[in-house]
UniProtKB/TrEMBL annotation:
GO terms for molecular function: signaling receptor activity. One of its GO terms (biological process) is regulation of neuroinflammatory response. Keywords: Disulfide bond, Glycoprotein, Membrane, Receptor, Transmembrane, Transmembrane helix. The gene is Cd200r1b_1. This is MOR1B protein. Residues 1-92, 111-174 form the Ig-like domain. It is a single-pass membrane protein.
Length: 175
């Protein structure tokens, strides 16, 4: 999320037309077309999706500042002298969660992995009893909340470990 993503088409010589058909999870269909006479056309596409000009590959799609709204299927169709070709990319956006660790009113550590996509996994060191809850948000992100419930940890260092495809994090606390 927040970075640029570059999607490529099949490479072919003597191309006459390139069309990107983009089916977003939310928001419908958008198309970008490019013909050899360098005419371009865009229908229902956001300004963040456009052709990326590269000398080695002329028909690359760049998505700037990727967000959750960009998730979907991106199909490139090429019409060339040797035939028609297509390639589909399935774009899934990862959102790293924000890790928050604090002590509750009973001196138990509480760990929150806030607004991650997909939901993060929380574990504790030392391993002990814990409860878990997931709160799903309308934008597709998930907050995971874990209470470390072993009462004998008072004064002991507890470490919350958050595992996520966008990167792992850990923090320690003494309650």
């Amino acid at each position: 999320i927040g970075r640029s993503s570059v999607l490529t088409c099949p490479h072919s010589s003597n191309i006459t037309l390139v069309t990107w058909k983009i089916s977003l999870k939310v928001g419908g269909l958008c198309t970008l077309a490019y013909s050899t006479d360098q005419k371009t056309d865009s229908t229902n596409c956001s300004d963040s999706m456009n052709w990326k000009l590269r000398t080695d590959w002329e028909h690359v799609l760049e998505i700037q500042r990727v967000g959750i709204a960009h998730e979907g299927n991106y199909t490139c169709e090429i019409a060339a002298e040797k035939g028609n070709f297509q390639k589909t990319h399935h774009l899934t956006v990862l959102v790293p969660p924000r890790l928050i660790l604090y002590c509750d009113g009973h001196s138990n550590p509480v760990c929150k992995a806030v607004a991650g996509k997909p939901a993060a996994q929380i574990s504790w060191a030392p391993e002990d009893k814990a409860t878990y809850r997931e709160d799903h948000h309308s934008n597709g992100t998930v907050t995971v909340l874990s209470h470390f419930t072993e009462h004998s940890t008072s004064g002991t260092n507890a470490t919350c470990i958050v595992s996520h495809p966008a990167g792992n994090q850990s923090k320690s606390i003494v309650c």
